[in-house]
Amino acid sequence: IARRNGDAVIADVDCIDDNQYDVIFMSQDGEEEEATISSKDILCSIWDKDETYLQPRCLLNLSRCLVKLAEFDATTGIVWCHGQTKRTTRQEKYRSSAVLGCSITITLCEYYRES
Fold it and tell me: For residue 108, what is the enclosing H or E element?
């Protein structure tokens, strides 16, 4: 699963070279599109033999824990992340990570349903 235009999408990795991934994105209408992306845009590897949906359940539990951390963590201050220009609080980072985890889970479940 890779990040593409802010979304989590399925991508088949074709080649890995110097921290760059040649991937093939499948559109909803069945069209294939090749692209080169950075390793930073790789969000998750899919475990094909996940018959019990363990990977999505773990991601959902992790997302739930991140939401709880955002509620309980009263630490003040700003968090700087590498490559980001915007300053955010810890609570904002926890929440945005939880949303990303849920987005990846939705993409995983769609992949499993189509397989």
Answer: helix 90-114
Query: What gap in Å lies between CA 59 and CA 115, rounded to an integer?
Result: 20
Contact 101, 60 (CB under 8 A): yes
3-class SS shares of the chain: helix, strand, coil, % to 5: 40, 30, 30
Structure tokens at 63: 């997302």
Q: What 3-state class would DSSP assign to 49?
A: coil
pTM beyond cutoff 0.70: yes
Output the DSSP codes for 66-83: HHHHHHH----SEE--TT
33, 24 contact by CB (below 8 A): yes
CA distance 10 to 114: 12
Tokens (6 digits) for 85: 């220009």
Q: What is the pLDDT of residues 65-102, one digit of tens each?
A: 999 999 988 777 666 666 666 677 888 889 999 999 99
